[in-house]
Amino acid sequence: MRGILGPGRAGVKMLDTQVNMTATQEYFTFGFMSITPRRGHTSAFQRSADGASPEPSVASSLLERRQRRGWSQSRMGQLAGITRQSYAAIESGRSTPSVEVALRLARGLGCAVDELFQLADSPPASRTVPTTGLERPDARRFRVVRIAGKEMAVGVQEGWPGAGGPADGLGEFIGPGEIRFQPFRESAAPSPSLVVAGCDPAFGLVVDLLRERHGVACMHLSVGSRAALDALARGAVHVAGVHLRDPASGQYNTPWVERLLPFPAITVGFTRWQQSLLLRPGNPLGVHGLVDLARPGVRFLNREPGSGSRDLADRMLASARIPAEAVPGYLQTAATSHGSVGSAVASGAADAGVGIGAVGLAWGLHMIPLEEEPYDLVIPSHFLELEAVKALLALLREPVLRRQVEALGGYDVSVMGAGA
Known about the structure:
Number of helices: 14
Strand content: 15-25%
Oligomer: single chain
């Protein structure tokens, strides 16, 4: 459970203590001899004069793209109008496709030919790529995604469920929201077909099940609710997860969606959870409520501004008439995830923080319930016809996901998929 709910690699400045969390293309010339449509095909291989197979002259991303969709080699052969064996020879690099075959494959996979095939001996060319704006300033490892037809770079977040793993290349910031991207290989084309921003660590289960059951590659970025909605508004992600209470109406999420998004969107339920004051195991300092946070020696680890948890803490302190500056650490700290708060409190690097009950259970923390909140997924209407979004909405209705999330503890999954 700690693998799902535990912290990512992040540094949280806790007063005078540093807490380190650990837990993460010349447009190529096609051959005309190797592969032809079904009739008239003779050999799937090109041989050198001594009979040995030559080194591949054309590299492709066929295997990666096929596996991402869960397609068979036979289906790929049908797309190209060739046999399965001939397709397999192209995919493995043992044979070079004709122009017609290459065009058919690119069309079937929904990409450009030069995204699918490259000269094998060409060094990877660097290029300028805009970022999502959700990256740490020291990010170096990036994945490349395509959102609404626009290529964007996303920083790899080690240790956060659904946002770590292999990178597509290295990036160096050359200006605000822009990097010089050096791919590890020419076929490093946009990979995840769904990018979700939010703060629920349980969404890592969605990432896994989308891949296993629907063949959809999803990347889940760990950010607070306001940052997720802002990213959605500027077209940097496909879906945002939010838990934000509107101070005027007391309603959650919908007023913020209507206020911040310049386009129609739907709000789909994911879970309800209990926000709690997370305290060290056994509550050795005898903290019984928010008023005790102002006591000398109680170190509070806050969340970043714009997060739902920070908003909740601000509201509750104001309601109790406790000045923020009276709480040690309140204005000086800004953890970036629920798991980071849980880990810091469990390790003794902090004495208290606000987080979801599932994290408290995972770390064996003492908890004082504060407020029950809905955590919703916001999806722009113009993304509803994307196959990856359809797969997400279908998964939200599958009992297997509900059982997996419910087993973590601290979640009410009865609202999952509501509104879809």
